Amino acid sequence: MTELICICCPSGCHLSVDEDNDYKVTGNGCERGAEYGKSEVKSPVRVLTSTIEVKGGEIGRCPVKTNGAIPKGKIFDAQKKVQEVCLNAPINLGDVIIENICDTGINVIATKTVGEK
């Protein structure tokens, strides 16, 4: 039995997930909590947020994030790939910075426009 706190809404329901009973979830206040509990135990995923160095920009770093959730086990590898990148200004909000990060099918995108100096 795995105990979790649901993060789907501000209620923060205390979930219990029974792996031996087809991942049955109890303690959830809504169906989203049941889905979250089951997926968190079976294959947890996260959205990666970070920043990347910018040369010639009005600011020195550009915030980025994955445009979807990636497997939790690939977060550190994905962050290493993000740290290897250096961008040149200008950068536009929504620009794809890294395609298919760690073969997940998910892209890293810019979350802010950074103009030139």
SSE topology:
Layout: E1 2-5, E2 14-18, E3 24-26, H1 31-42, E4 45-46, E5 49-55, E6 61-66, E7 70-71, H2 75-83, E8 86-88, E9 96-98, E10 108-110
Parallel strand pairs: 5-8
Antiparallel strand pairs: 1-2, 2-3, 4-7, 5-6, 6-10, 9-10
Q: How does this structure look, described?
A:
The protein is of the alpha+beta class. The chain contains two helices and ten strands. The protein is elongated. Helix content is 18%, strand content 32%. 22% of the residues are buried. The model has no long low-confidence stretch (mean pLDDT 96).
Name the descriptors.
2 helices, 117 residues, elongated, alpha+beta, three-stranded antiparallel β-sheet, five-stranded mixed β-sheet, 18% helix
Assign an overall shape: elongated
| Poorly predicted runs of 5 or more residues | none
Provide the gyration radius in Å: 18 Å
User: What structural class do you assign from the helix and strand content?
Assistant: alpha+beta
- How many E strands? 10
Structure summary:
This protein has 117 residues and is α+β, with helices and mostly antiparallel strands. It contains two helices and ten strands.
